[in-house]
Amino acid sequence: MTAPVLREHTLDLIGNTPLVRLEGPSREAGCDIFGKCEFANPGASVKDRAALWIIRDAEARGELQPGGTVVEGTAGNTGIGIALVANALGYRTIIVMPDNQSQEKMTTLRALGAELVTVPPTKFADCNHFVHTSRRLAEETEGAIWSNQFDNTANRKAHIEGTARELWEQMEHRIDGFTCAAGTGGTIAGVGMGLKEFDEKCVIALTDPHGAALFNYYANGELKGEGSSVAEGIGQGRITGNLEGAPIDTQFRISDEEGLDWVARLLREEGLCLGLSSGINVAGAIALGRQLVAEGRSNPRVATILCDTGFRYLSTLYDAAWLEAKGLPVFPWLQTGD
Fold first, then answer.
1. Are residue 80 and residue 198 in the same domain, yes or no?
2. Are residues 50 and 38 part of one domain?
3. Looking at CB atoms within 10 Å, which of 129, 181, 194, 304 has the fewest?
4. Which residues are catalytic, by number?
5. Nearest partner of 307 among 234, 244, 229, 242, judged by Cα
6. For the segment 70-107, what is each residue's pLDDT rounded down to a tens digit?
7. pTM of the model
């Protein structure tokens, strides 16, 4: 048995997450499907990586000084990652998020000592959008930086240098496909760029929820959304700085219902409690695996991101009344008899 690795600093706990073969998805796809367990990061999500790289980059450029403040607009997980990294390095945190995100994320941010500002959800073109609000707060706060996760390419650099390299090593230098959804675009672009450096034949696929515009953009060249999704932290209506030049080879659109089906199956069959973005990613990985099998690839291997823990959505995805109110199927074990 390999001895556990000693970490010299708590921030060294970010990254180097486990990779696991998912049995049910592998059976469905007819090939091996692997999930990168990003819920194993200290902040329980993939966004810890971007938070660390963004803050370290701001320090290296001299923009973030001792005792300074980091301001970000986020659906929640990036804010949690920033709060933890900032705490470890002696910075304050101000987080702006839409008020329709899960209460668990808001409670967590307050518990971590972040100053939380909530705003009504609105379109990006609205000056009161959470991203624009966070930028203004950064400009108005002495000693503050705006982390700007959507357009700050330190975000995707975290995945070029970290996630992609880890996947390549963990999969023993043989990975046929990778897919995940895009929020900021940092993960899909960064992992895609990193894996393409190792093997240009690795297929990079976008998995988009309904309501987002990127599926149509990569399929037809037009930023156009159709439908809607309750998934938090994914779905994008513009080409962010992180998405510019992303090596997207193909694309899939996954419904909330299909994503929730995999959330339910992964919990009941494999003991993984995950959020909806992970379920959507897994459904996309199955679609990509089936496509590679149909194309004649021999025993293709596909990886995706298990973004965060389901414990962050106990008041939403794992609440029968909330699911019913959204017109979504209720997990069987949450259903009550008459």
1. no
2. no
3. 129
4. 47
5. 234
6. 999 998 899 999 999 999 999 999 999 999 988 999 99
7. 0.95
